[in-house]
Design a protein that fits this description.
alpha/beta; 249 residues; ThiF_NAD_FAD-bd; 8 strands; globular; 17% strand; nucleotidyltransferase activity; 8-stranded mixed sheet
Length: 249
């Protein structure tokens, strides 16, 4: 790091849990952020600001007026632009030293598997169970930690699934395929309070920074937040010995 980098990241470097070594690991790190909407916006901005060296942002959607109530990486002038491109521009404005790639398409199949195998951490900022299952399977196959977030109405949740831990569950252990509930439980149909996605997205970014830098202990289990009462709850999530995704591995 040069003098400018030392100054930029000084408030993190002075933390004994991060220090120079942790910041260097961040600068050498690579995160895949899938979804550049309500959750992906704070994730992209905070990871870039914290000095994660490489970000790959993937989102096929375009910015709409109704997104601007909560998707803080985008502005009114970005309406009609691809969300990944818009978020890339916002993150680079915060930290031009980051290397950021925008993918303006849905990630699945071979492309998803290849990218998951290239990064240090994957952040699932999507809002569909089908996408979450595909991302979970790709991370499990690649042996890469997955930071999963969700937010709807006044309720949010976060979980970290780390296949490097032999006792860790995966997303399919928490929500077995076929038992996930309403596929269309999304913000577009049900609404969401604006700061909730920022809170959960920031939580996701924090966990990614910990995983890459080596600071602290990664989150375990499932944390849920009730925005109407301000209460957090934490649940242990055991690994399912019959899980169709991780039982064999």
């Amino acid at each position: 790091m040069d003098d400018q980098s030392l100054l930029r990241y000084s408030r993190q470097i002075m933390l004994e849990q991060v220090d120079i070594d942790g910041q260097e690991r961040l600068l050498a790190g690579h995160a895949l952020v899938i979804g550049a909407g309500g959750l992906g916006s704070p994730v992209a901005l905070y990871l870039a600001a914290a000095g994660l060296g490489r970000l790959t942002l993937a989102d096929a959607d375009a910015v709409e007026l109704s997104n601007l109530q909560r998707q803080i990486a985008h502005a009114t002038a970005d309406i009609g632009r691809n969300k990944a491109e818009s978020a890339r521009e916002a993150a680079l404005a915060l930290n031009p030293g980051c290397v950021i790639q925008a993918i303006d398409d849905y990630l699945d199949g071979e492309a998803l598997a290849r990218l998951a195998a290239e990064v240090d951490v994957v952040l699932d900022c999507t809002d569909r169970f089908s996408s979450r299952y595909a991302i979970n399977a790709a991370c499990r196959a690649a042996g890469v930690p997955l930071v999963s977030g969700a937010a709807i109405r006044f309720s949010g949740q976060l979980a970290v699934f780390d296949p490097r831990d032999p006792d860790a569950p995966c997303y399919a252990c928490l929500y077995p395929p076929g038992e996930e509930g309403d596929e269309e439980l999304r913000c577009a149909e049900n609404g969401v309070i604006a700061p909730l996605v920022g809170l959960i997205g920031s939580f996701q970014a924090l966990e990614a920074i910990k995983l890459v830098s080596g600071a602290g202990t990664p989150h375990r289990g499932l944390s849920t937040f009730d925005g109407l009462t301000g209460q957090w709850r934490h649940f242990g999530v055991p690994r399912d010995p019959a899980c169709p995704v991780c039982a064999a591995t």
